[in-house]
Amino acid sequence: MAQEPDGTPPRADRGAPLPYYGTAGGSGQAQGGAGAPDGGPVPAVRVRGLWKRFGEQAAVAGIELDLPAGRFIGLVGPNGAGKTTTLSMVTGLLRPDDGLVQINGHDVWADPVAVKSRIGVLPEGLRLFERLSGRELLAYTGRLRGLPGAEVDKRTGQLLDVLDLTAAQHKLVVDYSTGMRKKIGLAAALLHNPEVLFLDEPFEGVDPVSAQVIRGVLERYTAGGGTVVFSSHVMELVESLCDWVAVMAAGRIVARGPLAEVRGEAPTLQDAFLSLVGADRRTGQDLDWLGGGSR
Ligand SMILES: Nc1ncnc2c1ncn2[C@@H]1O[C@H](COP(=O)(O)OP(=O)(O)OP(=O)(O)O)[C@@H](O)[C@H]1O
């Protein structure tokens, strides 16, 4: 598999290698804006030695990963592979036991304000302010992000329109459907025009029409230079949307690189994925009693 980053324009903000966090609960040192230590282009996301244990179990077991800027990146893996735990640590929602995470050269835990102004996050199990209307939620988010009121109004109107939420803009979020919640969450994550957008299962529970709308917005965002990192189980979706993928299994990255390279000789990403995570051997052949006939 290819080693990233690739094809990303070099940036001026380069600097020294960064320290790891050290032991559990350590916060590392501020190194805002530092670049790739090898002199290469600064990756959108740089992860080194990332660990998270829950009791005896290592949910994330020493991940090393560079995600190139300006790409549509899919993080895929079977249930329990550690995708959500990884994304939570990368976005500053969950403190790692050990390891380093940088967003465009800024340390997630040592320089959280710089990082949070650069990222948008649509987490799994998104919690929203339910007693606000969709429009109020975006107005509130925009002001929290420090945007001027007129700019918040303009962007809010445009995002509500593009995401087909204008008719529901005055409805309380508590009354939104699953798909509407994803869309208003996406609008809130995009409002400040982040450099990197993280989405945990953005298409789960979303109907095909809304999925197409979300897809269009994300494609517009990457065309403008933004980086999307999203997790999904749906290989067809990843294959049609992403140009770069990272495959996780049992807390580790087992493959990463441009989509075509990870797919390799396999006919589809799904085949490559099943082979990479070792699931192609589980065919259900042993269940010879199953079939609804004799009990
Ligand atoms: N708060 C927690 N406490 C204990 N175990 C946890 C916790 N969060 C995650 N885990 C465990 O860590 C492992 C990785 O979970 P994670 O949710 O990151 O996987 P995932 O790849 O996102 O899975 P899925 O695709 O099913 O959402 C799982 O075995 C899970 O049970």
From TrEMBL:
Its main location: membrane. One of its GO terms (cellular component) is plasma membrane. It is found in: Cell membrane. Keywords: Antibiotic resistance, ATP-binding, Nucleotide-binding, Transport. Residues 1-41 are annotated as: Disordered. InterPro entries: AAA+_ATPase, ABC_transporter-like_ATP-bd, ABC_transporter_ATP-binding, P-loop_NTPase. PANTHER family: ABC TRANSPORTER ATP-BINDING PROTEIN, DOXORUBICIN RESISTANCE ATP-BINDING PROTEIN DRRA. This is ABC-2 type transport system ATP-binding protein. It comes from Actinacidiphila bryophytorum.
